[in-house]
Amino acid sequence: MMAAVQPLESLPAPGRRQSFGRNHIAMDIDIETRAPRASHEMTIRGGLQQGDARIVVIMYGPGQEQIVAVFAEVLGKPYRLKGGIRDVTRDDQDWVIGVSAESAKAEIASRNRGLVVTINAHCTTLGMPPDVYLSAQTDYEWLYTEASFFRRDLTRFVSHTLGQLSHHETLMAKPRTYFISTTFPDVHAALPNIDILTVGSDAVEIRVDLLKEPLGNGRFSEIPSLSYVGEQLMLLRQRTELPIIFTTRCTKENGRFPMDNPDLFYEYLYRAIQWGVEYIDVELWLPETIRRRLYEQRGSSRIMSAFHDFSGTFKWPSQRAESIFLQSRRYADIVKMIAIINDHNENFELEYFRSKIKAEYPDSPPLSAVNMGETGQFSRTLNKVFTPITHPLLPIIAAPGQMSAAEINQALALVGQLPKKNIYGITSPSMRSAIPQAPFYEKCFNELGLPHHFAVVERQPKGLASIETWCNQRNFGGAYLNPAMSLTNLATSKGFFASLNNGNGPVLSEAARLIGMVDTIVVRPATSSSSASTPSSPPRQQNGDSVGAVGSTQSGLPPNTSLVFDNASWKGILSTLTRDLAPSAYFGCAAVVLASSADDAASALFALKALKVGKVYTVGFKTPPAFAKDLLIEPFNSLESIQRARTVNANGTESIRAGAGSPFVVVSALGPEKSNLVGMLVRLFGSPPRGAAGAGRENSRRVFLDLADGSGHGPRKGDPGLIAEQCGFAAYGAADVTAFTTVETLRLLVGQNVPYSFVRLASGRQFF
User: Where is the composition biased (Polar residues) (predicted)?
Assistant: First the structure.
């Protein structure tokens, strides 16, 4: 059986490899890049990067010195306080520097911008707004509260602003993306339902012009102040992990911001860049000097050039429409064009315009274009880039004709573009005691308005016949495998799987090939040219067969339909490890992986490789050959090797990096019956020996990840997570990884986003 291998958009860049054999399977790498060309210099296909190499200088308020230590811990660096920005030299390259806001004020304008990047960290408890001069001069500004400090917000902020992590290319590679606009006058009103509001959304828009800042006595400010907007943005970002779109819509384009002062727009939009907002909505009517300046100053943020026409006379097949697009793309990462129409046929004119732009300007930014009003709703089902959506829980819609994600999916189903599919959770006999997943997936499908059926089925202990039977259905829509199956076992197929892709077998994602484990099977229709994350769309079945009617649906997949074998677990591990720490915290550090087999360890190894760790110490398994080339591996085979791991750095030298003198991250894939062994090793690495590099630093807290989910054959003996916390580790468990993996699995299977917070909420666990 042959298999084509396709890389994922967020992989650590692997080199091109030749095909190689494994039992009956040979694999060739397909390196076709399907994501739009990245027009931004700081990111590469949405992966992890070193980011901004300048020295990070944190400016703090009175009595807030401790925030410097938190920044340093998140970034994985030591810190020290200095009297002023001018005191920072190249000798501080590997440090986070803290300078009081009062001292920085006199020097910030004359700072060496090539040497330092400044962040004004302002605690809102001290009063708002922050120092106006510092806010205007600093590179970035982060607002926080003492009462409810959200570490994840800080991690997301520094990962984004310093260019270490960006999701833009990943989003643009999705078959469809949506954003929801929060039309509340006060963000507080949205927070209780934010987990439900954002299901199906890939980003959240904050409509700054719709915010109402109270002035007292029932009066409101005509324009919300930057101080009020900053606090509102802070609240929203603390409660959602989704990217945020910052919009100041003008009065002419159905908003409330006055048009008589374009500089006001620049002031607010540039401040949004300083606040680390992912997407900045810049209206096309603004002077070119302002649009160009924002584009040049955007840092890691992305510019959405926005054009709206409410006249009812705009025509898509016109020279004006093309001219507007060309004018927009000059200073944009995404071009947004929206018009109100009077005739249904104008929806088809928009589709012709969309295809014309794509054909004639293939290197241009992605186009998001829809028609407004009830007549234009059809266009919202056809637009694939950041379609604006609403939700029944919102007080008002942001624009005429907006639909919810569920309404769009239901409309697509009605016109045959989203046919009913059977999606399976394929388990093994050992998972019978696991928490039922069917109710959760049904909740997600219902919230998204998807027509699919979901069922949990149990595979046979031996052979692939049952799996191939479920996959070889005309209405098969994909499956997850729990536990994951070895690629070696799947490669033994000489039947249905081997016949796919003209006898070449299923397509393998780069992750599945390197990890050697498959936990997700994705359907790729014959007509699809998108990535492996494209949701399957087999022809609509005529007989309305249900999930359980396997025997009556065995007409087989439509001709030339491919199956993609993928692995989502590594993304769950990666997201867990970077939830409270920036990627740079792991760069070059040492790690320990405990597992009973290479199969159990492979997903963790792949995630650590993506994080660019310096060395991985292994316990209990032999490293797979695929990782031996790309990772510095050392097995623990004696007490001496363990002692060496405790006292030297990943590269064998001393380092000032926090925790570098001992493994920074410990990942255990051992079953719960081996908890005592895990706890012993955690204690061993919990406190580095006296005199070890990095010892005694306030920001040297290490990370422990326990992948044991309690489904093993033996009872848990001790709690390694509790032991880890007692030894100074930040401990994470299988529930965190499972939730993040579920987010990725749903994205792969149905092509839509279900936020981590909703996964935890809908699965019956508390989010916080």
Answer: 540-555
Q: Which residue has the tokens 């606090």?
A: 231
Reduced to 3 states (helix: H, G, I; strand: E, B; else coil), residue 596 is coil
Q: Among 173-177, 370-374, 603-607, 672-676, where is mean pLDDT lowest? A: 672-676
The pLDDT assigned to 463 comes to: 80
The sign of the dihedral angle between the CA atoms of 504, 507, 509, 514 is: negative
CA distances to 58, 69, 115, 342 from 65, rounded to whole Å, are 9, 8, 22, 60
Q: Exposure pattern of 391-424 as b/e (b: 16+ CB <10 Å)? A: beebeebbbebbbbbbbbbbbbbeeeebbbbbbb
Give the DSSP H/E element, type plus range, for residue 704.
strand 702-706
Number of H helices, E strands in the chain: 26, 31
Q: Where are the beta strands (DSSP E) in 332-405?
A: 334-340, 367-372, 387-390, 403-404
Strands (E), 464-515: 476-486, 507-509
* Token code pair at residue 688: 């580095």
Q: Measured between alpha carbons, how far is 166 from 161 in angstroms, rounded to an integer?
A: 9
Instruction: Give yes or no for residue 452 having a pLDDT over 70.
Output: yes
| The pair of three-digit structure tokens given for residue 535, joined into one six-digit string | 């949701």
The pLDDT of residue 643 is above 80 = no
Residue type, 550: V
In this predicted model, what pLDDT tens digit does every residue of 615-637 receive, in sequence order? 999 999 999 888 888 889 999 87
Domains of the chain: 2-38+419-567 (3.40.50.10860), 55-161 (3.40.50), 174-408 (3.20.20.70), 572-732 (3.40.50.720)
Inform me whether the pLDDT recorded for 537 exceeds 70: no
Q: What is the mean pLDDT of residues 31-60?
A: 59
Confirm if 239 and 767 have CB atoms less than 8 A apart.
no
pLDDT of residue 558: 86
- Dihedral (Cα; 158, 161, 164, 168), 10-degree rounding: 120
Q: Are strands 665-668 and 633-635 parallel, antiparallel or unpaired?
A: unpaired
Residue type, 15: G
Confidence label for 432 from pLDDT (cuts 50, 70 and 90): low
